[in-house]
Amino acid sequence: MRSEWWEGFKTRNNLAYRKVNASSLKPLEREAELVRDYPDELMPLLDIYPSSTIYNFDETRFDWDVCSKHTYDFKGAQRVVGIQSAKAKHSITVMLLIRADGKKFPALLIFQEKTGKIPFRVYEHLTIPNNIVVKANRTGYITDDMISDYLRTVLTKERQLIIMDQATSHKTDRIVQALSDLQAQSIIIPGGCTKHVQPLDAIVIANFKRKATQFRVDTNPSKLKEDHKEAETSRLLIDSKW
Fold first, then answer.
1. What pLDDT was estimated at residue 41?
2. For residue 37, pLDDT beyond 60
3. Domains of the chain as residue ranges with CATH
4. What is the pLDDT, as a whole number, of residue 147?
5. Which pLDDT score, from 0 to 100, does residue 226 have?
6. HEC string of the chain?
7. pLDDT value at residue 223
């Protein structure tokens, strides 16, 4: 019966027993291979560019609604459920830029706003420090024009190396043109490898998010004016942790 089912399945799906002439590595094996090969491409460039001309940028996203890891429930309950909104009311994206000699550049903070702009009544109450650039759009996600404008603002025109991951917004014509205008050579970190070899992703962002999240939990937004408490608290957490 089992053999008859298998034969019927092969016939229905036009399958045949074939000789393997190509192979596909398991994801973890492929990832390990890319991590091994990446330094061979990067190391020669590190010998050419001084540390003061080597940059790495990356983005991370925060949802404003934070579901606490603890809540009240009946003693002895086997299952403790945390209730969270299906969709965060507000989100922000933070883009960070660092240089190999240790210099940090202003964090680009992107708010999610229904109109695509921060309301004037909110903006007028914001105290924006020198280490933050504030933008907004309808999604709260970064776009290639934001990245391009930011890089053109903070970087000078000199021979420099930009290390970045394979995010779609990093590979558009606008970004390619901006890097060309800035006389910058880019090197793309292989997909799936950023957690291992990208400085910001492997070291900075995880620690940054942990501290910023704790700050957000410890800070009481109700002490701020209702109209701008979210924007101001977001500004505070980025400022204090970056």
1. 85
2. yes
3. 26-66+87-241 (3.30.420.10)
4. 96
5. 46
6. CHHHHHHHHHHHCCCCCCCCCCCCCCHHHHHHHHHHHHHHHHHHHHHHCCHHHEEEEEEEEEECCCCCCCCCCCCCCCCCCCCCCCCCCCEEEEEEEEECCCCECCEEEEEECCCCCCCHHHHCCCCCCCCEEEEEECCCCCCHHHHHHHHHHHCCCCCEEEEECCCHHHCCHHHHHHHHHCCEEEEECCCCCHHHHCHHHHHHHHHHHHHHHHHHHHCCHHHCCHHHHHHHHHHHHHHHHC
7. 44
